[in-house]
Amino acid sequence: MDSKPWMTRRAVAAGCLALGAAGIVAATVRASGPTVWPDRPVRVIVPYPAGGSVDLLTRIVAERLERRLGQSFVIENKPGAAGNIGVAAMVASRPDGYTLAAATVGHFAINPFIDTQAAADPERDFAPVSLIYELPNALVVPSRVPATTVAEFVAWAKGQGRLAFGSSGVGTSTHLFPTLFAARTGLDAAHVPFRGAAQTIPAMLSGDVAFAIDNLTSYMSYIESGQIRPLALTGTQRWPTLPEVPTMAEAGMPDFDMTSWAAFAVPAGTPRAIVDRLAATLADIAADPTVRQRFAIVGARALSSTPEQVAARAARERPIWKETVRIAGLTS
User: Fold this and answer.
1) Which residues contact 287 (CB under 8 A, 6 or more apart)?
2) Distances (CA, A) of 48 to 82, 194, 223
3) Judgement on whether residues 124 and 143 belong to the same structural domain of the protein
């Protein structure tokens, strides 16, 4: 018989305290994990300058993320190299859910076919979260150009000699579309790459470039003010807020029906629990009628998806963009 029962009672009590402490530690570990993400501000990289379509639309979404998740979503513009600098910064960050990037169709489906060391591999280096938006590109000219249709513009342009067009960088859709347009219409056109539409537009208004096929959102306020005129839109149907503007196909230019789109992406290895929570929140935001209206006013359509749907869309469009890159002479 144990002559020191008090030692047994003390041992039992100590064991209970230890178990209790272990439970507290475990609960603390669980609370600090993805289940309470985010518990500090989140960096949202926009790989283009402030004022362009990607910046504008991402800011609308970030504002709603703050309201729904209770943390700041801080926009950081990191333009350059057709958006590759900003995406590279996202890829280099810790995969903890606190750095996102608004990656475009260029990062997901075009860059793999262009010889550029700045490009990240979308299937290796980063992971999709959810689609954010899609929008048509618009063939736009400054109001001083005496053309109101695509045919009139082509006829006018051929009498001007070499004309310059602006884009958001080599290999972007805003470079590839005008290159194809010039090739198919026989225009003598020189490419002038900028860091984004925020730089292309002033160049167009000052006379340095004569046209662009660029994201509609970036140009809406200038279209409304009459400074810039849209001649046609890419996509399969007319845009609701510009019903008088024909599609490129209607204007006699088939095979210009692809839209521009963007999706949030995170570094490869980011916990799936964080990705799923972010995707679910983005689905709620895209379904908000107020958000959908704000997007429509500026020329975009709010979207959401699963990560797998983003990857599937990119895979579906890569063959088309691969051929476009080849025709533009940019194949690596």
Assistant:
1) 304
2) 8, 10, 21
3) no
The whole model's pTM is what? 0.80
The DSSP string of 92-146 is TS-SSSSEEEEEEHIIIIIGGGB--TT---TTTTEEEEEEEEEE-EEEEEETTS-
How many CB atoms within 10 Å of residue 205?
Answer: 15
Strand 228-233 relative to strand 163-167, pairing: unpaired
Full residue range of the structural domain in which residue 322 is found: 39-133+260-327
How many angstroms from the chain centroid is the CA of residue 123?
16
Our CA angle for 141, 143, 149, nearest 5°, is: 55
C-alpha to C-alpha distances, 287 to 132, 278, 282, 291, 293, nearest whole angstrom? 11, 14, 9, 8, 10
Which of 44, 35, 36 shows the shortest CA–CA distance to 98?
A: 44
- 218 and 151 share one domain: yes
Domain assignment present for residue 252? The answer is no
137-142 and 212-215 as β-strands: parallel, antiparallel, unpaired? Answer: antiparallel
Query: Cα separations (Å) of 257 from 235, 237, 247, 299, 323?
Result: 4, 9, 8, 16, 14
Residues 307 and 280 in one domain: yes
Contact 212, 194 (CB under 8 A): no
Q: How far is CA 175 from CA 72, 117, 261, in A?
A: 34, 18, 15
Q: Which two tokens stand for residue 113?
A: 């076919």
**Rounded Cα–Cα distance for residues 181 and 161 (Å):** 16
Structural domain count of the chain: 2
DSSP state string for 274-314: HHHHHHHHHHHHHH-HHHHHHHHHTT-EE----HHHHHHHH
Encode pLDDT of 305-316 as tens digits. 999 999 999 999
Look at residue 10 and tell me whether its pLDDT is greater than 60: no
Label residue 114 by pLDDT band (50, 70, 90).
Answer: confident
Give kind and range of the element (H or E) at residue 151.
helix 150-158
